[in-house]
Amino acid sequence: xxxxxxxxxxxxxxxxxxxxxxxxxxxxxxxxxxxxxxxxxxxxxxxxxxxxxxxxxxxxxxxxxxxxxxxxxxxxxxxxxxxxxxxxxxxxxxxxxxxxxxxxxxxxxxxxxxxxxxxxxxxx
Length: 124
Known about the structure:
29% of the residues lie in helices and 35% in strands. It is α+β, with helices and mostly antiparallel strands. The strands form two sheets. A four-stranded antiparallel sheet has the order 1-8-3-6. A hairpin with a 5-residue loop joins strand 4 and strand 5 (48-55). It is elongated, with a radius of gyration of 19 Å.
């Protein structure tokens, strides 16, 4: 938790400010401290549709970072607010470290099961 907190920085936003834009590359993960944020998706017909809203809590932007995909929605500030942001590189580093530790714990656990001891460790 302290590693995550140390990696984040505050970003103040004003009403109407676009925080992320659909189709852009993912650069940051955001946690909402205060303010209201609306989410929009532009369909194939070119029409922008409101698909959600967060007020004073929540997070967004992780999907583009986790899956290395373009942003799937646009996030706009409905009110002035404050966000805490983490860069793509830091986010991926923390997520990958966690995944490795989890996998290692499972490997150790499974190695203690007699019936599974003969299995090889590794991905083929």
